[in-house]
Amino acid sequence: MLPLNSFRIGRVSRPSRGGCFRFSSGPSSSSTISLTETVPETQTIRDSNLAPKLSDIPSGSNSFPKSRNRDVRVNELMSRMEATAARTVRHRQRLADDREKMSLMGSLQTTLRSSRPSAFAKNPPSSTDLTLSTLIAATAHLGHHKSLTSPTNYPLIYGTRSDLAVLDLRQTLTYLHRACNVIRETVENDGIVLFATGIDGTQHAIKAASERLGKNGYALGHRPNNQNGVWVRGTLTNSIEVLKGPRQVVKQMHLAKSFKEGQGLNQAQNMRKHQSDNLESLKFQPALIVVLSPRDSRVLLREASLKQIPTIGVIDSDVDPRVVTYPIPANDDSIRLIELLAGVLARAGQEGLRRREQKFSRLMLTGSGHEKLHTNTLRM
Asked: Compositional bias (Low complexity) at which positions (predicted)?
């Protein structure tokens, strides 16, 4: 028996194929102890139940198949790849069809007809070209807090999000088309359209809209410090007295200019004759009033209702739609939207101007034809 100090720390070698474990104290050691344990044949790894037999592997298993199942496995993989590719092709085709539909609708998801909010004032779209995506880009769907919602405005609200009322833009388009038809017929019948707003920064929008209508469009002026003009009480209900002073100022300025040209004496005499009792010419009666901020124009709306003048107004979620004749449910706090709506309504008024010119040209042609027919009958 060897003494204890003759043992050294060695290593256990990997068991051999016969199940033997060998311990060696190192290459320099002269003494070696071998521990051999014979494993029975019935407990070998080959015959144990730890791994299934190769002959029992079914077709398509995750384990490595035999050579006779390899072709079946390849066919299954090919069929799966073909099915995946077919699903991908169908999905991409559906996306292409949806993209084409969205492009026809002018959605924001495409770049074919993307809206540019900066161009609303200079180049506004017509009522027929206006889409839901354009209104969303102009923030027309944003309302006020749900606690401020007017009860009469519930049918015009789509829902709420983050305690904020969201307006139904489908109804906004419907009401806007109706308002465009009204202003088109008004201008076609030679009616005066008055634009008014109470939001700072929108004076240029109503001024451009009135200029598009020519002599049929007027805008509520603003002060020299770029503030909104205040509606003078009684301009509609008591126009004779209210407009007398401004009309006299205009006449005096015209008279002073005429004196410089040397024709002031005759014009002054004619002016005194026409100025006697001709107060009917001082009346101001627009045929339609477009109010882009009804909350800030209550006096104007009250006078318009007393004089039975139809009105078009932008109605937010906290405004009663009954205050105007033709409401347009939209966000009245957005300068971008005010520019868009003013431009769209002005484009509709321009269509009315073109229709009136076409009617006038047809009447002139018809009148000249009647005159020619009358002269021919006289000659005969």
From this structure: 18-31
Angle, to 10 degrees, between the axis of helix 335-379 and the axis of helix 169-188? 30
Alpha-carbon gap, residue 10 to 322, rounded angstroms = 100
CATH code of 117-224+283-367, in short, is 3.40.50.10490
Which of helix, strand or coil describes residue 21? strand
Long-range contacts of 112-118 (CB under 8 A, 24+ apart): 117/336, 117/340
Strands 11-12 and 142-145, how do they pair?
A: unpaired
Three-class secondary structure assignment of 65-95: CCHHHHHHHHHHHHHHHHHHHHHHHHHHHHH
How many other CB atoms are there within 10 angstroms of residue 218's CB atom? 17
Q: Are 37 and 21 in contact (CB under 8 A)?
A: yes
Bridge partners for 165 per DSSP: 160
pLDDT at 289: 93
Task: Specify the pLDDT at position 182.
Answer: 94
- Does this model's pTM top 0.70? My answer is no
Q: What is the full DSSP assignment across 182-218?
A: HHHHHHHTT--EEEE--STT-HHHHHHHHHHTGGGEE
At 284 the pLDDT is 62
Contact 299, 242 (CB under 8 A): no
- Helices and strands, counts by H and E, the chain: 9, 11
- Do 153 and 320 form a contact (C-beta atoms < 8 A)? yes
- CA dist 140 and 333 (Å) reads 9
Q: How far apart are CA 266 and CA 331, in angstroms?
A: 55
